C-alpha cells in the first residue's frame, strides 16, 4: 500500500486531457528485453497509469446523475500541438474595406421588429418577415405612373436584380480570397473553377464512368480498335458502342413466326390505310358525273317534244325517201 | 437468309403496292400448297445476300439446312437491295405482279420488240391501257395476247396519254423479259 502511494505521487496526471505519465520511468538499457517481456511491462505500467487517472477522478467533487456520478474536468495542463496550421486571415471584402475607410461600425440589430402593416412583432428576415415589400397586395398608383408598366412585375424584377448583384459580389470576394490562399481547400476548388468571363455556370465535372471510358475511346485509334492493346491494371474492357442488330428468327415453329406475321400485318395495314384516300378517284367521279349529266340532258331534250319528234321523223322519212329517190335519179 | 426487318419490309411492300394496290393483301397472305405438309403454309419474304426472295414456308424451312454461303437462291427472287440501300424490283417478280396488277398497258405487236430491247413504251406502241393511271404508278406491260412482257412506271396519266403525241413516253421502262437474255449472268 505504501509503495503504491509512492508510485502515484510519481505520476504526472493531467485530468483536463484525461492523461497520465510517469516521467521517471526508464527501461533497462544494458540487457535488451524480449518482445513478450516488453509488452508485459508496458501493459503493467499502463494499468498503473489508468488507475492513477481513475483515482484522481474520484477525488473530484461530483454530482449524482441517472448514469452515475458526474464530474467537471479541470482545464487541461499539457498543451498539445495543432494538427493543421492556423488559418490565414481572409482579406477584407469590398464592403469591409469600404466600411473601414468610412468608419462604419457594425451594430447588432434586434431579431424581432415591429410590423406596421399587421401591427404585430415579426422576425426581421426570412419567412413571414416584418415590413415585407413583396407581401404588399395593393400598390397605389401615382398620377405620374405609366399605365403600361406592371408594378408587381417591376418589383419582382428588382428583387431578382438585387439577388444577382449580391451573388456576383460574393463570388468576386471569394475569388479575391482564393488568391490569398485564405480559403479552405473545398471552397477554394469551387471558387477557382468559376470562369472569369462569360457564363457563370461552373464547368461540368467528368463523372467516374466517363473517365473510365476515356481509355476505351482512345483505344479505338489503333487498327484493331483496341482489341489487342496491352491492358493496364484495373482497366475495364471497352464498352461496345452502338446497338446490336436484332432480327426475327428465320423459321419459328412450323414456318412463319407469329412475330413476323404480326410485323407484316402491321406494315400492310399501315400502307393500305396510308393510301386509302385512293378509294375515291376524284377525276373519275367528276367524269362519271359529267357523263351522267350529259345523258340526262339528252334524254330530257328527247322527252320534251315527243309528238313533235314523231311528226318530224315521219316527215323526214317521207322526205328522205323522196330525196333519195331524187338523188338516185340524179346519179 | 433472314426475315426482313421493319424498315426493309415497308420498303418492299411500298414498292409492291405501287403495282398491285390493295391486292398486296393477297400477295402477302397467299396460301402455298408446296411441299408435303398437310396444312397449306404462307408465302413469306426473306433476305439473302441483298436479294429479296418470295418463298413458301415449307421451302424456307428446308432451306435452313443449307449453309448461308452455299445457298444461292430459294423460291422467287423478286428484287434486290442496291449498294446504295434502295430496293429495286427485278424481272423475276413479273409473274407475281402480272397476276395482281392494278394498272396494265397492252402493246401493239409491231412494237413489242422495241420494249423487249429495254426501251421505254411510247404512245405509238400502246394498243390500250387501263383507266385511272396516275403518273408514278407501277404499270405492267402485256403483249396483245396477254403475255406479260415487263413492267415500268407510268410517266403520264391515262387522260394525258390521249392527248400525247405519238413519240411521247407513256411508261418508263424498269424491267422486261428480254433481260433474261441480256443480263443472264446478273440475275
Automatic annotation (TrEMBL), chain A:
Name the record gives this protein: Ribosome biogenesis regulatory protein
Organism placement in taxonomy: Eukaryota, Viridiplantae, Streptophyta, Embryophyta, Tracheophyta
GO biological process, one term: ribosomal large subunit biogenesis
Function of the molecule: Involved in ribosomal large subunit assembly.
Compartment(s) where it occurs, according to its Swiss-Prot or TrEMBL record: Nucleus
Disordered: region residues: 139-166, 283-331
Cross-referenced InterPro entries: Ribosom_reg
Gene Ontology CC entries for this record: nucleolus; preribosome, large subunit precursor
Compositionally biased spans, kind Basic and acidic residues: 142-155, 301-311
PANTHER family on file: RIBOSOME BIOGENESIS REGULATORY PROTEIN, RIBOSOME BIOGENESIS REGULATORY PROTEIN HOMOLOG
UniProtKB/TrEMBL annotation, chain B:
CDD domains: Nip7_N_euk (cd21146), PUA_Nip7-like (cd21151)
InterPro entries, per the entry: NIP7_N, Nip7_N_euk, PUA, PUA-like_sf, PUA_sf, Ribosomal_synth_fac_NIP7, UPF0113_PUA
GO biological process terms on file: ribosome assembly
UniProt superkingdom: Eukaryota
A Pfam family assignment: pre-PUA_NIP7
Keywords, comma-separated and alphabetical: Nucleus, Ribosome biogenesis, RNA-binding
Domain spans labelled PUA: 103-178
Gene Ontology cellular component list: nucleolus
One GO MF term: RNA binding
Main location: nucleus
Subcellular location: Nucleus, Nucleolus
Subunit structure: Interacts with pre-ribosome complex.
Family: Belongs to the NIP7 family.
Function per UniProt: Required for proper 27S pre-rRNA processing and 60S ribosome subunit assembly.
Name assigned to this protein: 60S ribosome subunit biogenesis protein NIP7 homolog
Amino acid at each position: 500500500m505504501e509503495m503504491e502511494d509512492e508510485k502515484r505521487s510519481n505520476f504526472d496526471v493531467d485530468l483536463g486531457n484525461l492523461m497520465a505519465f510517469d516521467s521517471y520511468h526508464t527501461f533497462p538499457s544494458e540487457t535488451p528485453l524480449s518482445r513478450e517481456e516488453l509488452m508485459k511491462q508496458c501493459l503493467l505500467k499502463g494499468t498503473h497509469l489508468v488507475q492513477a487517472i481513475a483515482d484522481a477522478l474520484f477525488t473530484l467533487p461530483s454530482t449524482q446523475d441517472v448514469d452515475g456520478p458526474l464530474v467537471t474536468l479541470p482545464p487541461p495542463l499539457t498543451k498539445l500541438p495543432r494538427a493543421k496550421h492556423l488559418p490565414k486571415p481572409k482579406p477584407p471584402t469590398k464592403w469591409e474595406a469600404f466600411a473601414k475607410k468610412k468608419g462604419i461600425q457594425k451594430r447588432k440589430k434586434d431579431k424581432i421588429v415591429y410590423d406596421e402593416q399587421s401591427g404585430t412583432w415579426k422576425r426581421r428576415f426570412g419567412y413571414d418577415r416584418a415590413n415585407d415589400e413583396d407581401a404588399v397586395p395593393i400598390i397605389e398608383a401615382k398620377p405620374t405612373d405609366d399605365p403600361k408598366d406592371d408594378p408587381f412585375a417591376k418589383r419582382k424584377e428588382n428583387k431578382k436584380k438585387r439577388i444577382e448583384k449580391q451573388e456576383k459580389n460574393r463570388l468576386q470576394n471569394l475569388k479575391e480570397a482564393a488568391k490569398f490562399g485564405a480559403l479552405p481547400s473545398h471552397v477554394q476548388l469551387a471558387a477557382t473553377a468559376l470562369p472569369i468571363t462569360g457564363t457563370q455556370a461552373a464547368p461540368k465535372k467528368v463523372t467516374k464512368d466517363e473517365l473510365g471510358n476515356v481509355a476505351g475511346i482512345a483505344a479505338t485509334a489503333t487498327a484493331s480498335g483496341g482489341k489487342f492493346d496491352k491492358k493496364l491494371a484495373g482497366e475495364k474492357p471497352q464498352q461496345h458502342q452502338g446497338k446490336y442488330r436484332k432480327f426475327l428468327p428465320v423459321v419459328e415453329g412450323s414456318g412463319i413466326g407469329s412475330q413476323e406475321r404480326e410485323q407484316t400485318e402491321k406494315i400492310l395495314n399501315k400502307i393500305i390505310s396510308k393510301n386509302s384516300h385512293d378509294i375515291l378517284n376524284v377525276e373519275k367521279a367528276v367524269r362519271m358525273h359529267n357523263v351522267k349529266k350529259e345523258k340526262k340532258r339528252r334524254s330530257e331534250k328527247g322527252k320534251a317534244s315527243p309528238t313533235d319528234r314523231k311528226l318530224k321523223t315521219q316527215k323526214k322519212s317521207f322526205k328522205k325517201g323522196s330525196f333519195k329517190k331524187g338523188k338516185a335519179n340524179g346519179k | 437468309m433472314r426475315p426482313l426487318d421493319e424498315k426493309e419490309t415497308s420498303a418492299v411492300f411500298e414498292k409492291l403496292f405501287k403495282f398491285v394496290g390493295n391486292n398486296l393483301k393477297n400477295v402477302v397472305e397467299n396460301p402455298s400448297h408446296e411441299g408435303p405438309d398437310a396444312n397449306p403454309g404462307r408465302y413469306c419474304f426473306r433476305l439473302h445476300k441483298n436479294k429479296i426472295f418470295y418463298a413458301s414456308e415449307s421451302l424456307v424451312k428446308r432451306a435452313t439446312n443449307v449453309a448461308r454461303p452455299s445457298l444461292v437462291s430459294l423460291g422467287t427472287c423478286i428484287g434486290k437491295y442496291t449498294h446504295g440501300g434502295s430496293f429495286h424490283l427485278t424481272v423475276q417478280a413479273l409473274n407475281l405482279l402480272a397476276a395482281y396488277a392494278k394498272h396494265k398497258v397492252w402493246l401493239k405487236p409491231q412494237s413489242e420488240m422495241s420494249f423487249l430491247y429495254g426501251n421505254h413504251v411510247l404512245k405509238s406502241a400502246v394498243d390500250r391501257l387501263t383507266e385511272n393511271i396516275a403518273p408514278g404508278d407501277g404499270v405492267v406491260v402485256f403483249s396483245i395476247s396477254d403475255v406479260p412482257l415487263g413492267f415500268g412506271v407510268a410517266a403520264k396519266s391515262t387522260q394525258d396519254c390521249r392527248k400525247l403525241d405519238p413519240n411521247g413516253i407513256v411508261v418508263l421502262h424498269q424491267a422486261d423479259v428480254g433481260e433474261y437474255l441480256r443480263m443472264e449472268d446478273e440475275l
